[in-house]
Amino acid sequence: MAEVAPLPAALPLPDIANVAHAYELQAQASTMQAEASTILSQNAALLPNIPAVNEVNILQQILASINEINGRLNTTNGRLGTIEGRLTTMEGRLTTMEGRLTTMEGQLNNVRADVETVRADVQQVRQDLRYESECTIIRSHNIQQARNGPLIPLPHRPGCPAYQAGEFPANESALPGLPVAAANHLLAAYGLPTAGNIQEKRERLARFLGRQL
């Protein structure tokens, strides 16, 4: 009769405490996964609002700043151009005013020259009047003298050469025999013409002295 194999020994039973701990760990892991999913879902709406910082954005910002600076420079250049235009206009006006002032200065110089001329003429007229007044007084005295009465010499006209001492006739009787040189000197001293013969010169001088030949 064949022998019957012996039955295997019974398998050891798992420890109940270990099995419970494993289930507890699995439950905790599931809970943590669920909480993480909840947190992600709650904050998902905030993620698109965070700007992406990359090279493209930086370049765009730099270009925008450069364009803004260029715009300001263009505005400043425009204002400078306006100011330069105004300055050019003012320079033109100043040049015009300088030209007018130069013209006015020339006119003033002409007026001053005219005034000086008039002043000189007035001075000459005063001098002539003073001379004629002095001569008139002397002539009045000489006219009252007799033919042989002494004559007061008339002074020479200002600006004319003086006659020499002794050339003025002492009286009317000396006029007909007045030498040519003395007659010429006296006529020149009184600003009278020296043309003509000796008789014409003597008569011209006698009329000036208020006497007759």
UniProtKB/TrEMBL annotation:
Gene3D superfamilies tied to this protein: 1.20.5.340
This one is known as Uncharacterized protein
